[in-house]
């Protein structure tokens, strides 16, 4: 969650297509859009807003590698080095038998690592429950566009007019 | 942006708008518990209490209270364990595999199916703890340092693999389910009128605001979680089947077990989803969300997996004869014609014949019939595990060791415990959490596209042409 400060113009749209097509139009007109809030994911919104592609996949892969290494180290060390054991006539280090647990721990580490990264990168935490939001209808049926007036070179009236032209049904002012 | 081909029925019926979806799903979370819910919850609690007493006695007195004997050392405990794990698999299949296959009909049922997964795996885990006999020693199954015992756990053993598989499966499913819940919890938080519920739902919603950045990461991790959960769900039942397949008991020692168990798991799981959803849709008036199309599609999956299971039964029987292994052949002939013939034929009838009735369109679109067959399938799948476990064990190599198994009241009581636990948890879920994923359902409806041209008149010419084409649900109506 980005830090909110200053004065914002909040455009309220009632359709995902309208807001998706409003974004490039407004950006072309020179409006700097801070963020769009919606009740469900709008495909293509990232590109429209110019957000960089998420790198959470790289993090997930790294966690997977860690999980894989932890599992193999654990099993090779315990079964082969700390207390070597021959079970069923196999070598004390017998890799094929380690595949299931290696797989499980890889999945476990990837999932938990990735989700933790997701929480941190989005600023999601139980303590964040009272953060102020632009419009509570963003989790119901409205699509909310937030524009920081201070960071735009255009005047408030111009932005407001551009928002209405792009299909916004309401334009509100929110001060933080 | 969801586009439905004009030849298909819309996924969600009744011309719902985004606000309607929120209203319909949140209604039961926000309202007071209904009388029906209270009655059902009361019954579940009584069942759970009775089961808990039986379980307490089992743990107090020891496993001797079960009907096990020196020949049949595994019976209802492991049967119930495999049965519940299997049921759990449908939830993951619906939420993960169907996500990868872009099957959008899953959006109305995935939430409840995933909840079912989590509760079913808890029930399964309770049988693991039960069959240990001394559940306070359960931590011995973990790879703890040598000081706890003389040795490390044996990582070559499928039983240890199972510990890792089940616990990974449970925790990853829980995470997947929770991630999907966050946007909906935020919706409830933003509608909450009382301070307590705003605080509770707000805490679990963790400050979700629905920003484009959050959504894009959310979709990305959902996809990866689905990609992880898909092989995970296959691995779990594969490993469960290896508990049997890596032993040298005739009737267990077969390579067909992993795919056969996975198909059976999906089969029984979908049947359980049907049972739960058919009741939920009526009680919460969700007929527009869980439509006949959903029921029919799930029945098709039941027929497919039921056929796979049928082929597996026949293959198993054929290989027992074709392998020329005397013991293997005997194990199978004994299953079909021995003292437990009734269990074998109950399994064959319930699992192989009954799902084939769904080839009739009329039957697979009949709600009563679907409910009936789903119950039958679950009974059949319970018998499958019973047949595999008990009939393979009860006639040992030495005829002097032959024995029969009959359940005691504690075998039955501990099974009842799992039902009490499952339904208590499911009822709590269905009251306090949205049973349908609102965010995902909103993404598959077109609520206002009919207004599109006039709303953005003169904005984008391309949109005019697209909006005019009869592509969206709303336009077809």
What features would you describe in this structure?
The complex is a heterodimer of chains A (176) and B (477). Chain A has 176 residues and is an alpha+beta fold. Helix content of chain A is 47%, strand content 12%. Chain A has two domains: 7-51 and 129-175, Alpha-Beta Plaits, CATH 3.30.70; 56-121, no CATH class. Chain A contains five helices and four strands. In chain A, strands 2-3-1-4 form a four-stranded antiparallel beta sheet. In chain A, helix 3 (56-82) runs antiparallel to helix 4. The longest helix of chain A has 28 residues, at 95-122. The relative contact order of chain B is 0.18. Chain B contains 18 helices and no strands. In chain B, helix 4 (110-132) packs across helix 5 (158-191) and helix 8 (257-283) packs antiparallel against helix 13. By secondary structure, chain B is mainly α. Classes of the chains: A alpha+beta (176), B mainly alpha (477).
Main structural class of chain B: mainly alpha
The major beta sheet of chain A can be summarized as: 4 strands, antiparallel
In sequence order, what are the helices and strands of chain A, one letter per element? EHEHHHEHE
Helix content of chain B: 55-70%
Task: Write down the Rg of chain B.
Answer: 24 Å
Low-confidence stretches of chain A: none
Shape designation of chain B: globular
Shape of chain A: elongated
Class derived from helix and strand content of chain A: alpha+beta
β-strand number of chain B: 0
List the domain count of chain A as a whole number.
2
Q: What is the overall number of helices of chain A?
A: 5
- Give the radius of gyration of chain A: 25 Å
> How many E strands of chain A?
4
CATH overall fold name of the largest domain in chain A: Alpha-Beta Plaits
Counted by DSSP, the helix tally of chain B is 18
Mean pLDDT of chain A: 87
Please state the oligomeric state of the protein chains shown: heterodimer
Reading off the top of the CATH hierarchy, the class of the largest domain in chain A is best stated as: Alpha Beta
In percent terms, what proportion of residues of chain B is strand? under 5%
């Amino acid at each position: 969650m980005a830090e909110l400060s200053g004065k914002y113009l909040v455009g309220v749209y009632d359709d995902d297509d309208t807001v998706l097509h409003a974004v490039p139009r407004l950006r072309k007109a020179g409006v700097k859009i801070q963020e769009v809030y919606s009740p469900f994911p709008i495909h293509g919104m990232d590109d429209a807003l110019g957000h960089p592609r998420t790198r959470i996949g790289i993090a997930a892969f790294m966690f997977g590698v860690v999980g894989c290494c932890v599992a193999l180290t654990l099993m090779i060390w315990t079964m082969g080095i700390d207390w070597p054991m021959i079970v069923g006539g196999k070598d004390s280090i017998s890799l094929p038998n380690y595949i299931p647990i290696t797989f499980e721990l890889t999945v476990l580490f990837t999932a938990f690592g990735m989700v933790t990264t997701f929480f941190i990168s989005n600023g999601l935490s139980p303590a964040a429950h009272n953060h102020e939001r632009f419009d509570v209808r963003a989790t119901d049926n409205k699509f909310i566009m937030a524009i920081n007036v201070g960071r735009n070179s255009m005047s408030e009236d111009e932005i407001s007019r551009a928002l209405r032209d792009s299909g916004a049904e309401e334009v509100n002012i929110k001060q933080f | 942006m969801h586009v439905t081909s004009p030849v298909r029925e819309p996924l969600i019926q009744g011309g719902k708008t985004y606000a309607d979806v929120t209203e319909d799903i949140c209604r039961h979370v926000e309202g007071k518990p209904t009388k029906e819910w209270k009655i059902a919850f009361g019954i579940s609690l009584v069942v759970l209490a009775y089961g808990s007493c039986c379980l307490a006695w089992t743990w107090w007195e020891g496993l001797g209270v079960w009907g096990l004997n020196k020949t049949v050392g595994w019976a209802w405990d492991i049967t119930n364990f495999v049965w519940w794990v299997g049921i759990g698999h449908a939830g993951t299949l619906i939420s993960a595999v169907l996500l990868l296959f872009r099957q959008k009909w899953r959006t109305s049922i995935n939430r409840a199916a995933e909840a079912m997964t989590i509760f079913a795996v808890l029930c399964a885990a309770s049988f693991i703890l039960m069959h240990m006999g001394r559940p306070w020693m359960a931590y011995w199954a973990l790879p703890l340092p040598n000081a706890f015992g003389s040795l490390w756990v044996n990582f070559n053993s499928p039983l240890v693999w199972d510990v890792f598989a089940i616990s990974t499966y449970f925790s990853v499913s829980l995470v997947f389910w929770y991630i999907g819940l966050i946007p909906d919890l935020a919706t409830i938080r933003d509608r909450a009128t009382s301070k307590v519920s705003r605080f509770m739902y707000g805490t679990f919603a963790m400050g979700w605001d629905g920003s484009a950045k959050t959504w894009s990461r959310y979709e990305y991790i959902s996809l990866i979680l689905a990609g992880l959960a898909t092989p995970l769900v296959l691995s779990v039942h594969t490993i469960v089947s290896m508990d049997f397949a890596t032993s040298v008991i005739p009737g267990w020692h077969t390579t067909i077990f992993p795919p056969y168990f996975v198909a059976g798991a999906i089969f029984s799981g979908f049947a359980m989803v049907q049972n739960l959803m058919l009741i939920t849709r009526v009680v919460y008036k969700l007929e527009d969300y869980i439509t006949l199309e959903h029921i029919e599609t799930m029945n098709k999956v039941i027929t497919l997996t039921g056929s796979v299971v049928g082929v597996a039964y026949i293959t198993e029987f054929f290989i027992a004869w074709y392998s020329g292994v005397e013991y293997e052949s005997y194990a199978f002939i004994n299953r079909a014609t021995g003292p437990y013939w009734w269990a074998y034929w109950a399994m064959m009838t319930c699992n192989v014949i009954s799902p084939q009735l769904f080839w009739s369109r009329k039957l697979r679109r009949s709600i009563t019939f679907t409910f009936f067959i789903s119950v039958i399938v679950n009974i059949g799948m319970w018998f499958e595990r019973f047949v595999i476990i008990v009939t393979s064990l009860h006639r040992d190599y030495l005829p002097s060791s032959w024995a029969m198994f009959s359940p005691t009241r504690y075998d039955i009581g501990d099974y009842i415990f799992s039902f009490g636990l499952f339904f208590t948890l499911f009822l709590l879920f269905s009251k306090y959490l949205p049973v349908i994923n609102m965010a995902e359902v909103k993404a598959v409806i077109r609520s206002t596209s009919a207004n599109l041209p006039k709303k953005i008149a003169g904005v984008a010419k391309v949109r005019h042409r697209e909006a005019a084409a009869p592509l969206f649900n709303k336009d077809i109506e």
